[in-house]
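Forum > Structural Biology > Help requests

Title: Can anyone predict the 3D structure of Acetyl-CoA carboxylase biotin carboxyl carrier protein subunit?

Hi all, first post here. I have the sequence for Acetyl-CoA carboxylase biotin carboxyl carrier protein subunit but no way to get a structure on my laptop. I'd be grateful if someone could post the structure tokens.
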Amino acid sequence: MFRASVNDQPSFEIDFSGDLPVLNGQPLTWDLARLNDRMFHILYQNRSYTAELLDLNPTEKTATIKINQSIHQIALKDRFDLLLEQMGMSTASLTKINDIKAPMPGLILSLSVQPGDTVRKGDTILILEAMKMENVIKSPADGTIKTVRISRGQTVEKNQVLVEFS
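Reply #1:
Sure, ran it for you. Structure tokens for Acetyl-CoA carboxylase biotin carboxyl carrier protein subunit below:
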């Protein structure tokens, strides 16, 4: 299941797990034919569309497509993005980053930064083991590490400050 928004308009839900895509809970009956690596022909509700993938950024989960000469910006959120949003972690990229807090109690398995390091958005900061799963904690924005408040092998609590940025 994905939540998608097109051209910053209100989002909709789409699920590709079954035989037919499901859009906002309703089966999407269409005919989709691949013309080449980036172009598709779509028949939907007795109308014909030509879709071209102009740009795809899997890291940011965005795409730019052209449908019948109109360009559309698409942003996707998968179940992990939606979970982070529920945990209140999605707004971190919109503001200046001050610190990284533990999203849940766990054990620090590894630490990839030290004070003074410069990190980019998406760089691995640490690995937190929780409920027998390894959770890679990444930098939500570009920044410089000011303080590392934890060490490898340390147990942490939910919302404990792990790393501070300057």
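The longest strand covers residues 47-57. Helices lie at 79-86.
Shout if anything looks off.
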